[in-house]
Every structure is written in structure tokens, then in C-alpha cells.
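Appendix C reproduces, verbatim, an entry submitted by the partner laboratory led by Prof. M.T., so that reviewers can inspect both the input and the predicted structure.
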Amino acid sequence: MAKWQWLLLFLVTALLLFTGNSSLLVTDSVESNYALTAKEMVLSGDWLSPQIYGHYWYDKPVFFYWLTALSYKLFGFTEFASRFFPAVFGMASIVLLGWAGSKLYNARTGFYSAVILVSSVEFFLISKSIITDAVLFFFFSATLLCFYLGYSEGKARYWYTMYAAAGLAVLTKGPIGVLLPGLIITIFLLWQRDYVVLKRAHLVSGTLLFLVVAVPWYATMYALHGSDFVATFFGTHNFLRATVSEHPRDNVIYYYALVNVLALFPWSGLIPSAVYTWWHRDKRSLDTLQRFLLVWAVVVFAFFQCMATKYITYTYPLLFPASLLLGSMVAREEASCFTKKYLAWVACGFAALLAAAFWATSQGFMNDAYLFVLPLAVIIAGMLGFVLCLLSPARIYPIACTAVVFYLGLIFSIAIPFSQLRSAKDLGIMLAQHQVQEVGLYGSYPTSAVFYSGSKLVKLVPEKELEAYKPKSMSWTSKNVMPFAAMEKQHYPLLIVSSRSMKDFMQHNHSQWLTAGRRGQYVLLQPAAGKMDNPSPKGYNNAARLSAKSDWRNNHGRT
């Protein structure tokens, strides 16, 4: 492949992953937890123990928080800064995949594999999200890729890179960063019946390197926080997650099958052809590389299928081997891959996504002000695809181009309006403008409002439910670390209530309240006996916003 083609691919990737990031608000409930934790890391000056709401927070290891906090130091507490490193690691993964395909197969396969990944739905979504998965994907993939290169070529640099990457994966996501790659490697070696390789894998020195990278932070956290860190991080967020479902409604056998059909779209339509070819022609003549990539993809899928808690992002690491396998198939048999049935599948898929967008807006889930951008993107994609068909016989390019342009349209027509619905930025800005330091809240807790305001939002819970709400060891209630108090004993002259919880609030609270204002889905209430002339909370608790590190510590404290 020519250098200009690689350069164009990286430019398109950068365009896709960075476009709109300054307008995509920090959303609740997942993204805001990561963003607020990193923000508190910067404000407190404590870059060792992650904190949220002034409490130590053991949900994830520290590496992603370090990256996000570093981005905040460089760019300020902005949406662009929040999404900067997920996009950077998304680009790094494309570079890694292109290099891997070129080295393991040939330049054509490497390029096609990278094109497949960059135009896949899940890659696009995760590389723009404030979550750990884009960073984990890179280190997880580097670990297994370097294992195979060390296994096949025997060069020490690959082995040591494998150990270092595994250490960084553990610092990003936890024990799964080494346990799952270890399981994949073990199953592959059992299939190969090749155990001698362990003698040349630099086990002693490599394990020492892994420990040097991964262990110091965990050891320091144990020294500082003792059994509380062990019980919460390893107990609740690892063992409990694997054995007790956090979202029981998702515990269906077809969950990850459906997830990955969408995750790999528009290329998931090639999977039946790939499986047919493998079963009827290649299963008796699989080479070592194909075996390894199949084990990698299948074990990731099966492992998380067996876990009690299921998340859409868990099986994301299988996109790396899947992209390599599909890229090699397309490079080898391009003419037979893009059949009329497959092209019909792609057309139906995009039509279904378009129909879903229109349905969501018709139901009021989305703002339809910019929905026209999406059909416009489809028209532009069709025109570019036609031009590419005239310029090149490779049918992979028009499909990839259609996907990328469609995603760019999604950013402006769906993603940005959706982020506005899932974020309490307006509420946070209002609290910041009026220097509200502390206020009560009933209903869904908008962590994003805390991120944007710096205010303390105290979640109000009916007193009879307070004991059950308190965080307990080895229970999902351990995630209830936000400030909370009994609703009956609240003393705030202004309350925030989510519109969905208003009816329930009135049933539990028999006082008379008046509406003082509204910010998005949140209603501002004040006691009827003392209606304010100004419906805004200006003047309420008119303390200076927390800015200096010393003020932050004094006002938030640590528990």
C-alpha cells in the first residue's frame, strides 16, 4: 500500500475520533464518574488515591484517571479534554492493527484490517467515550500481539513488551488485564501442544518487569487503605461483578451475539461467509496464526458470556482479532466477499439505523433540530461511494467510506443532542453561576452537575429507606458514595428534583412546595411559606467557589 493511503487513513481516523468532541457533553451516569474523579484528582493534588465526592473511590485502577487528569491540566476541565485520550488511544489502536496485519500477513491485509476496525460501530463509539475501554483495548491487544510475535520469532523485545503491556492493562482495568490474556495464551498453547516455548519466554525477568509496572500502585493503595481497598476493589468491583449481575435484565444467552453483530457492523455481514469458508475448507488446514486469532476472539466472547454482569463494552477486545481475520479474508478473496446478499445486508443495516434515529426523535428521546444531517450524510456517503467505485475496484472502500460519513452525521444529528439530554450541564452551570456550594436533590443523581459546578449535591432518601441505601461490603450498594441524607431532615431552602421523580417526591414529602425554575429534566423547588422574589438561587449560600487546593480539601475532606 502506498504511503499516501496510510496517511489518508490516519487523517480520516483523526477526523472521525476528534470531530465534535468539544460539543459532546459529559453524560450521566458512567462518563461523569470518570470525569469527576479525574477532576478531583487535579483539584486535590492527590494523584495516587482516586476520589469522588471527596471520598476514596476504588471502582477502577488509576491509569485512566491519570490520563484524564493530565488532559485536564493541559486543556482545562472541558469536554474536549475529557475525550482526548480515548481518541488518542483509538488512533494508536489503528496504528497497532495496521502494523500487526502488515507484519503477520502483508501490507494489504494490514490496511484492510485497519479500515475494517475504524469503520466499525463499536470502535467509533468507544473511542469517543469517557471510559477505560479504548485504553484497555490498546494494551490488551498489544499484550497478545507481542506474545504471538515472541512465540513465532523468539525475539526478546516482543516478550518484554508483552509483560509491560500486560502491566499497563492491569493498571487500566484490573486483574482482567492479565488473567484473560493468560487464559487465551494457555488455551492456544494447549491446542498447539507446545509448552517448550515457556522456556524461552523470559518468565522470570518478564514477570519481574510486569510486577514493577503493575504492583507498586496496588501495594501503595493497600498500605494506605488496607482491607477497605481490597474488599471494595477486588471484592465488589471484580468478584461480585463476575458472580452477581448488576443488571439482571441483560442476562440472556443471546446478549453478546446481538452486541457483536452491531459492534462489527457493517462488517458483521461477512462473518457467515467466513464461518462457512472455515468450516468447509480451512478447518483441517488452519495455520498457527489463524488458530491464535480464533482462540483470542472466541475466548473473549465465551469468557464474558459466562460472567454474571454483562456490559456492551466487555467483548470489545475481540474486535482486534476479528478485524485481522476479516481483513485477511477480504485481501485474499475480495471478489467473493462483497456479494449482493452482503451489500443488501449493509443497505438494510444503514436503513435500520436511520429508521431508529427517526423513531427516537418521534418518541421525544432526541432533539430533532439536527436530524436532517443524518439523511444528508447518507446522500453524501452514496456520492462518495460511487466515486470510489469508479476510481478503485476494491469494494471495501465505498462501504468503509459510507460508514465513516454516516458516523460523522451521527455525531451532529444524534450524539450531541443525546449528550445534552443525558447531561446536567445546564444545572451545573446555574449552580456555579450563583455560587451554590451545597443543595439537596431528590431522584436520579446527576454527577455531571457536580463536575460542571463544583457544588455539593446531597441526595435525599426517605428516612425509612436510608439504612438500606447505605453502602455495604460485597453489595452493589457500595457504589452509593455520593453525599446523601434523610429527606425528612433536610434543611435546604432550595431543592432539586428530577421530573421523573416528582410524583414520588410529593408522596414522600407532605410540605408545600413551589416551582422556582427548571433546568433540563430537573425542577427547582422552594418551600411555599417563603417564596423568593427571584426564582434563581442567587444569594443562597453565597460562598466562594472552591478553587484553591487547600479550600478543596477543607470543604470536601476525606473519609
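The mean pLDDT is 86. Additional entries are available on request from the coordinating office.
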